[in-house]
Amino acid sequence: MSQFIVGLTGGIGSGKTAVSDSFAELGIDIVDADLVSRIVVEPGTPALAAIAEHFGSDILTQDGQLDRAQLRAIIFKDPEAKHWLEALLHPLIAEEIQRQLHSISSPYGIFVSPLLIEAGQRLFCDRVLVVDVPESTQVERTMARDSNDREQVERIIASQINRQDRRAAADDILDNSQDLSTLKDRVAALHVQYLELAKEKVG
Fold this sequence. Notes:
Blueprint: E1 5-9, H1 16-25, E2 29-32, H2 33-39, H3 46-55, H4 68-77, H5 79-101, E3 109-112, E4 127-132, H6 135-146, H7 150-159, H8 163-168, E5 172-175, H9 180-202
Parallel strand pairs: 1-3, 1-4, 2-3, 4-5
Helix pairs in contact: 1-9, 4-5, 6-7
Function: Catalyzes the phosphorylation of the 3'-hydroxyl group of dephosphocoenzyme A to form coenzyme A.
Keywords: ATP-binding, Coenzyme A biosynthesis, Cytoplasm, Kinase, Nucleotide-binding, Transferase
Binding site for ATP: 13-18
């Protein structure tokens, strides 16, 4: 396991994937909580069987995958359903995250999670990097990407930690309100900083 882990977080539509992709281009291993959350509910897993039993087989697509958009719509309207789902999945996700973090071989690792702060996952990290954009940008980007209506996007944003608290929890803040070229330059500067911090920790 790499000795130094940077936790990368930000609200929905802030551009976490663009940032993590930029770090990956620099040779840094990425562990993504969203990808992990998909692994634990792949067809054939006990978790997916439990979800289908609880919510009904309509929660599955024709090819047996989890219909994530439908599940998201249910849990944002029903707090009890959200609580049940989290109780099932969070321990499985935490276990898989730790397994992947221990497999990191680059000088430092990036752990990407939208719930890094809320779910206590910062305990996995030495440093927290927050990708930050104005809320209006979050709404526009998410509506364009996911074809969700404004009301649902705003509900998702309201369910996440607020922007001020997220910024307050950060060691580093990356403004992603400009173009991709600017973003890559900012990531490159952070990369140099993190290489030094990783060396110091090992030393």
